[in-house]
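idk why but the lab printer keeps eating my pages so im just putting this in chat instead. protein + 1,3-dihydroxyacetonephosphate:
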Amino acid sequence: MEVTEKIKKLQKERNALILAHFYQPGEVQDIADVVGDSLELAKAARDAENDVIVFCGVRFMAETAKILNPDKTVLLPAIDAGCPMADMITAEEVMRLKEENPNAAVLCYVNSDIEVKAVSDICATSSNAVKIAQSLKEEEIIFVPDQCLGSYVAQFLPEKKFILPKGFCPTHMKITSADIKAARAAKPNARLLVHPECAPEVVKLADFAGSTAQIIKEAVNSSHKEFLIGTEEGILHRLVKLCPDKKFYNIGRSQTCPNMKKTNIDLVLNALEKMEHEIKVKEDLAKKAVKSLERMFSVPL
Ligand code: 13P
Ligand code: SF4
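predcted complex ->
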């Protein structure tokens, strides 16, 4: 039996839901029940009625799923799939920033671990970060851990003071403004769509900035036929599938997140066979962290 058939059979037996991020390898996206951006996947995990959630992504995503739906068994097929950006901030550092800025609200990007979420006021993903920041009454906002996304959000709220410690996504930071200029010269008719995790000088050169799902929506709805894509290359799998008549190009060499690429269909099968690797969270931390996630969901978009 083929690996995909074995996955489908076991998935039924285990009553499992398979979630995959747009940065996952194509073969993993193809066997998933839901492929989405961070917000869409968090919602799918929160609302899942299955006994098991297999999260094809990185640790903070599976951890978020467990926080939001604690009675389910959440499995992360590649146990060592982390996010270097999430590792760039600690709860201790957030506490120190809070002490230094006692009137500031703490807005944490969902790309963070449970300890950081537990000491934050509210979470955001790249698709809702501007709206979330706009919903805060405080005049000062500590935004962690992504300085690039934080700077992007700050542009929409010039009246507020943003405190932005230095976190970043190593994959998106590889794209430079020189790469953009070269790509524009090579494909002068292409529309440039980027992720706000890119450096601010790169985002400034783009025609559109948004989360992975927003980039896809923009490409699908656009009358343009060619696009330069400034984000992780896994998204191209979805773009090509949804828009076979359009052309998509990476900027310079393709951008790959090594952690997102640790999952493959053999590991998904292994996860379902052995029920590993189960994500467990401390109850006291989860109770605190869920508040910042629920507050995010309560903001109208
Ligand atoms: P989104 O899918 O929410 O745009 O997130 C991008 C990302 O870097 C996830 O790690
Ligand atoms: Fe983390 Fe960047 Fe990889 Fe997303 S693409 S998981 S932010 S390192």
